[in-house]
Amino acid sequence: MHVTMIGSHLCPDTIDAMNKLLAAGAEISFKDILSCHADLKEYLKLRDTSPVYAEIRGTDMLGVPCFICDDGTVTLNIEDVLKK
Fold first, then answer.
1. CA 22, 28, 32, 33 torsion: positive or negative?
2. 48, 31, 49: which is closest to 40 by C-alpha?
3. pLDDT for the residue 9
4. Whether the model pTM is above 0.85
């Protein structure tokens, strides 16, 4: 399984999810929104346009970690990714 994960190494939820994915043997492409301007811009575009973020837009919630699966599925739920 390969997954693109968007988050921050400073976020405990991101670290927890990354550990779960690694334990499941996933191959992870990590995009750190706090250390890479290009990753942040890509994330903001996703956050502004994806229906996954409908309930988060306009709040003070950041919405990470975010997972993009090889089949194009975008989710904020680690359990959805682990089921694949």
1. negative
2. 31
3. 93
4. yes
